[in-house]
Automatic annotation (TrEMBL):
<feature type="domain" description="Cadherin">
    <location>
        <begin position="33"/>
        <end position="139"/>
    </location>
</feature>
<dbReference type="GO" id="GO:0007156">
    <property type="term" value="P:homophilic cell adhesion via plasma membrane adhesion molecules"/>
</dbReference>
<dbReference type="InterPro" id="IPR015919">
    <property type="entry name" value="Cadherin-like_sf"/>
</dbReference>
<keyword id="KW-0812">Transmembrane</keyword>
<feature type="domain" description="Cadherin">
    <location>
        <begin position="362"/>
        <end position="458"/>
    </location>
</feature>
<dbReference type="InterPro" id="IPR002126">
    <property type="entry name" value="Cadherin-like_dom"/>
</dbReference>
<keyword id="KW-0472">Membrane</keyword>
<feature type="signal peptide">
    <location>
        <begin position="1"/>
        <end position="34"/>
    </location>
</feature>
<keyword id="KW-0130">Cell adhesion</keyword>
<feature type="domain" description="Cadherin">
    <location>
        <begin position="591"/>
        <end position="679"/>
    </location>
</feature>
<keyword id="KW-1003">Cell membrane</keyword>
<dbReference type="GO" id="GO:0005509">
    <property type="term" value="F:calcium ion binding"/>
</dbReference>
<feature type="domain" description="Cadherin">
    <location>
        <begin position="140"/>
        <end position="248"/>
    </location>
</feature>
<dbReference type="InterPro" id="IPR050174">
    <property type="entry name" value="Protocadherin/Cadherin-CA"/>
</dbReference>
<keyword id="KW-1133">Transmembrane helix</keyword>
<comment type="function">
    <text>Potential calcium-dependent cell-adhesion protein. May be involved in the establishment and maintenance of specific neuronal connections in the brain.</text>
</comment>
<keyword id="KW-0106">Calcium</keyword>
Amino acid sequence: QQGMEVRQGAQGWGGSGRVALLAVLLCLCCRAAAERVRYSIPEELGRGSLVGPLARDLGLSPGELPARNLRIVAGDEKQYFSLEEDNRNLRVNDRIDRESICGSVSPCVLNLEAVVENPFDIFHVSVTIQDINDNAPQFDRELVTIEIIESTPPGTRFPLGNGRDPDIGVNSLQNYELTPNPFFSLLVRESPDGTKHAELVLEKMLDREKQKHHHLILTAVDGGDPVRSGTAQVKINVTDANDNPPVFTKEIYKVRLMENLPEGSLAFQVKATDNDQGTNAEITYSFSDIAKSVRQLFTLDPRTGDVKVTGLLDYEERKYYEMSVEGKDGGGLTAHAKVHIDIIDVNDHAPTLSLLPILNPIPEDSIPSTVVAVINVRDKDSGENGEVSCKTDGNLPFRLETSTENTYKLIIASALDRENVSAYNITITATDRGRPALWSSTELVLEVSDVNDNAPVFEEAAYSAYVAENNAAGALVLRVQARDADADANGRVSYWLAGGSAGAAGAAPLVSVEARSGALYAQRSLDYEQCREFAVEVRAQDGGSPARSSTATVRVFVLDRNDNAPRVLWPAAGPGEAPGAASAPAPFEVVPRSAEAGYLVAKVVAVDADAGRNAWLSYELVQATEPALFRVGLHSGEVRTARAVSERDAAKQRLVAVVKDHGQPALSATATLHVVLAESLQE
């Protein structure tokens, strides 16, 4: 997509017209902003200096800034920039020295990523650091000594060494100046890479006998405003003639060195020859033009011309070195050659990772493709050695997705379930393409937060409870329990009766449930004879929002107690008598005197409101005028003659039978029966 470029100047750049034009350009650029934002600032700005209105250039209004959570990620770069507390403007966080950061590389660009949320997006931000004229040219040697044979012809040139200015562009070294002298002039040459070299040109023949020494001042000037300069003294010693100068085998030695070359290793060799004889052919080698920092990395054997490595070469710090060597014979004649050294990268840096968590903890109902973290990967090596790929270990519901060249997004790949896995320990490994490959890894712990996605589940779908009648009000009937796999409030279960408490319409409720424990309590004493069983629906509900619930059926069976005595239905009690008391004289049964043994006199009929054994009735004759004359059936209640009626038996017989149940303890009632022995009713 089309990027946008915003150039921000320091205070004091240009007039108000340029500022107005810059504001118009900023507005136009902001409308077209897509994935990339560019700024340009001068080096050496103070801490807190404005780089640019980053939030506005990303199209973020002040109202939406808190929700979008704008942040910047700089990887393993030094934190040169920071956001204001309100996240609107990008400002300088630390001193920016272009020369120490980029050296001679131009343009000097610092890269970072801007991350926003809701929705998630990543923007690439680049800041170009512009050079200012903060360095004056300097010479490696403050005193340059040149020996020239008096027979040297005019037009001969002698290198004077290079001035060095770490600034770039117009602020770098632009020219050399030499104090006027009738014997010498200055020639400035420019190499293909733009470096300017000063050479001393002999204009007239020298005469050692007239003047043995000449003193000049060489000045290097840059093109900054104001101009900065540096000087070196040039001392020329005039010597006697030596007609054959040394000659190097090459004008330029081009060397390629691996950056991991051990200290003390032979890097290369320079070689020069001289057609003279004796001491005039003995050549001594030395560096004639070399930076102090480079001199610490290489040594030159003055006898053999062997150049050895004496320091640590690092491709990531410097990729190219240039120096000049001098060969001088015993007569003082010299020759010069240039050496160009290219450093070859080796895979000596493992990738580095920096993590920016976006969503942690993660709600378990987060949809796939949700971004949970941003990973920034850096490798100081170059080429394939600096190409990095990332992966996650294990079969996890997350995957890495490339966002930009150095940035990955960790996104949700499949549904999460906190009840199965509540946290993930993710190892992210970055591997480069070097041979052998180097790698590094980091761990990210992601927690899964609970959402209310589970309803309570009862231990049983249906419960049965047994309660003996005549219980005390408030007695425990049953305790139900439901479990919820969710956490905290989502898993906190409370109970109540679905549709209210159980009980007949208009009547007091039979049971209630305690909300926290799930315990069911009887609200009043239960009576088996009125209600033998009933069912209630208990609802378990969690504390989530919205809440989830489930129900279970509780069937309560009332157990009978022996709380009802048998009730005699026949013979009925006489007027004014309570049930169970002796009967009145009427009614009475008539038994003929001719009755034989087994004659059915009457049947005692009784009932018991209880159930089971409590309602099993047995009959017994406990009182009779003639005890041997009558008997009663144990289970039938039938009263029969035990023998034949005789003339001696009294005409009026009174029988008392007891009816007893089988409860513990047993309850009973009595029935009184009047019998008349006669042949006829009239009798």
